[in-house]
Write a structure and sequence with these properties.
Helices cover about 40% and strands about 20% of the residues. With about 450 residues, the chain is α+β, with helices and mostly antiparallel strands. The chain folds into three domains: about 80 residues, GIY-YIG endonuclease; about 170 residues, no CATH class; about 170 residues, 2-Layer Sandwich (Nucleotidyltransferase, domain 5). The strands form three sheets. Strands 7, 8, 9, 10, 11, 12, 13 and 14 form an eight-stranded mixed β-sheet that branches. Strands 2-1-3 form a three-stranded antiparallel β-sheet, sandwiched between helices. Helix 6 packs antiparallel against helix 7 and helix 10 packs antiparallel against helix 14. The longest helix is centred in the middle third of the chain and has 26 residues. The protein is globular and about 85 Å long. The chain starts with 14 loop residues before the first strand and ends with a helix.
Length: about 450
């Protein structure tokens, strides 16, 4: 059970807090003041059975401080999606953010999307989905950015209402000439009309549309003040015409825009917190583990005849067998040596093969034999350990299989199950999880490019 005295160690700053049990994350929350928010859990435990169960199961609380509350919201959402803690429900499934996307098509589309899977220019993320959608709908109407697949000679209803870009009308005019052979001058005889004026109109319409789209892009990224002035002028115009309902409706979009822009202007980047999250989400943050004693712990537990002062831990990350990347984190005398951290984009594989991926990154990491550590630690089981030992047979290697948390080494060829509550168990799982978070951070960056 987590001790109430843990609250005194927490800061009165914005950020996220994590309830943990050994190596497992139980709950992730956000707060404007971490200390004040966590204190309420102990006050509400009597009346809320879920909080009571959480406090009984947790044995520690860690935290990551953020620049402001908005970044705490975004970081919390991302971590809940990645880690799926037991007690989190609201943000556990699905994509917590939305983005604005300007596609790379001949006629670019201005879309609102949940995931960064299409090619194009992204703006975001936005956590307030409802507000973001309202702003998107307003911008589409205000700047005539709606694209439809219709071909109507006089234009669709949305075109006459001022929201459709009007390509439906021009497409219909051009389609009349599609079945007629063009001459070298670019004209076709169809009902006695030349094609060229319609082609010119088509190009001019695309240029005008792209210009309006660029205005929206600049608005969302830079020129918020001018956009506010434009809306306020329109509100004033509606008021003078006594169209008060339109003015009130438009002003709501201004209020929503402020909310969305507040998050946009935070320039949130998960990478800014990746290292803090990796450390605090792992068992390495446990107060009972003294960093200076890590090497001694490992020598005794692994039954080594030397002290492993320099430890490298490798991890592989992928998405459905694609986008395969690797990571290597180094600890020297119990301290993370960040200058020696390495990220690897797998070059020899296109499909998932953890064994071959490990061989590749280990070979690349130790091209210079002077970089060899005292101990190599691999995320995986017997197969992964054998792959690595085939590359560096003269270095002590160990592996740790997830879920069962069984460790394999030269002295534990059949494996030994770790005690998750022991210091050595927390230590080994913590190092493994640290490397895993580092790999995930790199993997996320590669997929977003």
């Amino acid at each position: 059970m987590v001790n109430k005295s843990e609250v005194d160690k927490l800061p009165k700053l914005s950020g996220i807090y994590m309830f943990r049990n050994c190596s497992k994350l139980l709950y992730i929350g956000k707060a404007k003041s971490i200390k004040d928010r966590v204190r309420t859990y102990f006050l509400n435990a009597i009346t809320d059975w879920k909080i009571d169960y959480l406090l009984k199961e947790a044995d520690s609380i860690t935290f990551v401080v953020t620049k402001n509350e908005q970044e705490a919201i975004l970081l919390e959402a991302q971590l809940i999606r990645d880690q799926k803690p037991k007690y989190n429900v609201l943000l556990k499934d699905g994509q917590p953010f939305v983005y604005y996307l300007i596609t790379n098509n001949e006629i670019p589309k201005f879309e609102i999307v949940r995931n960064r899977t299409k090619k194009g220019y992204y703006i975001g993320p936005f956590f307030s989905k409802q507000h973001a959608r309202r702003i998107h709908n307003y911008l589409v109407r205000e700047f005539q950015l709606k694209l439809c697949n219709k071909k109507i000679e006089t234009g669709c209803l949305d075109f006459h209402m001022g929201s459709c870009a009007g390509f439906c009308k021009i497409s219909r005019s051009l389609s009349k000439f599609a079945s007629h052979p063009s001459t070298s001058s670019g004209r076709a005889a169809a009902h006695g009309e030349p094609v060229e004026p319609y082609e010119r109109l088509w190009k001019m319409s695309i240029e005008s549309y792209k210009f309006r789209l660029e205005l929206v892009k600049n608005l969302l990224e830079d020129n918020l003040d001018q956009f506010k002035v434009s809306i306020e002028n329109k509100v004033s115009e509606f008021n003078q015409l006594m169209e008060y309902e339109k003015a009130a409706h438009l002003y709501k979009y201004l209020e929503n825009l402020s909310s969305v822009m507040k998050i946009l202007n935070t320039n949130f980047s998960y990478g800014n917190y990746a290292d803090s999250v990796a450390y605090n989400a792992s068992s390495l943050s446990d107060q009972n583990i003294k960093r200076a004693d890590i090497s001694d712990y490992l020598k005794e537990f692994l039954k080594l005849d030397f002290v492993p002062s320099v430890i490298d831990c490798f991890d592989i990350s992928h998405f459905q067998g694609k986008w395969i990347v690797g990571s290597c984190v180094r600890f020297i005398d119990g301290k993370a040596d960040k200058n020696s951290f390495r990220k690897f984009k797998i070059k020899t594989l296109t499909d998932q093969n953890d064994y071959e991926a490990l061989k590749e990154i280990v070979s690349r990491r130790y091209r210079d034999k002077e970089n060899l550590p005292d101990l190599v630690f691999v995320d995986g089981g017997k197969g992964q350990l054998s792959s690595v030992k085939s590359i560096i047979s003269d270095v002590e290697c160990i592996s740790l299989a997830k879920k069962e948390e069984i460790l394999f080494s030269s002295n534990f060829s059949d494996g030994i199950k770790l005690d998750l509550k022991s210091n050595i168990g927390k230590l080994l799982i913590g190092i493994r999880d640290y490397a895993h978070h580092f790999a995930i951070s790199y993997h996320r960056n590669k997929r977003s490019i």
